[in-house]
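Lab notebook, bench 4. Still working through the backlog of constructs that have no structural model yet. Next entry is a single chain of 149 residues. Request: give me the structure tokens for it.
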Amino acid sequence: MKQMVYHSPLGPIAVTEAGGMIAALTWSGRTTDVSPLLREACAQLADYFAGQRQAFDLPLDMGTGFQGQVRRAMAAIPYGQTRTYGELAREIGMPAQAIGQACGANPIPILIPCHRVLGAKGLGGFSAKGGVETKVALLRLEGAAGLLI
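Model written out:
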């Protein structure tokens, strides 16, 4: 696997490539074998954090089965918009709790925007470094902060 660290406003983010696809985004790691895909992913993240990109154009490992369904549903949520766990649950035909667990298991946060999925009566969780505060920062960046009030 190849990995490259992007120094974001939220701290270092390590992007991992496996099999020609982005396979993970983590809040720690180190640059190893850099590829053109990793350079492009970091450039797109830089554009996103600069407010110049609303969608990512990268090959992402969406996974299979239920996890893949949830990741595809999250990826379809437009920039600056949110959905609830319950809305995704109805769309996929699974319980909201299962959707929440799948969101928490998302290996590629930001690129697959699990931060755009909220609880019915609040923010819900966020498994990345900084937890809910990071989720709020990402939603504010996207102009979705008004949805939190």
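Notes after review: The longest strand covers residues 11-18. The chain has a mean pLDDT of 92. Flag for follow-up if needed.
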